[in-house]
UniProtKB/TrEMBL annotation:
Key words of the record: Cobalamin biosynthesis, Isomerase
Pathway named in the protein's UniProt entry: Cofactor biosynthesis; adenosylcobalamin biosynthesis
Entry annotated with the keyword Nucleotide-binding: no
One Pfam family hit: CbiC
GO terms for MF: precorrin-8X methylmutase activity
UniProt protein name: Precorrin-8X methylmutase
Amino acid sequence: MDFRTEFKPLTVQPQEIEEKSFEMITEELGEHDYTEEQFKVVQRVIHASADFELGRSLVFHPDAIRAGIEAIRSGKPVVADVQMVQVGISKPRLAKYGGDVRVYISDADVMEEAKRLNTTRAIISIRKAAREADGAIYAIGNAPTALLELIRLVKEGEARPGLIVGVPVGFVSAAESKEELLKLDVPFITNIGRKGGSPVAVATVNALSLLAERQG
């Protein structure tokens, strides 16, 4: 059996593939109201998801880009809701400024407390993060309960995030948690609707770290 194909890739060079992808994204997205820096995030989200509807649904707090860059360049940690987000984030760019990526959801004390209180590990992990990671960027791509708990803690003055990247995916409370985030007067990046996920959270943070790096 012959498995050969007549299709030939335009290029096999990684940098050229990325550049061509961004050119196609810019062309296909067309006119938009994003700032130049916001569009860098939008591009990477679409690049990670191949979803233009998702890209168009992104919403930026006016201070989001500035706050994200400032947090990264100040060495603040990134708090991920799950390991999938932690794995995808470019750690060398954060480490350049003294930052790292933390995820608490599998910590023994978090699991024990969640079991004792009969609640989700995501909720307890956010409570722990609020105590240990002041000024962090929160990258939430999977757990709406984590985002809702973070919003509650912010309202009660128990959490002081530098930026919230709230893009959980799903059917139960995902869209609603983002609607609540839109009401919060802290820097955030989110999207409208059920779509989102780890790749979106990762792409957003990586875009911000690239912007931070380009500032010198």
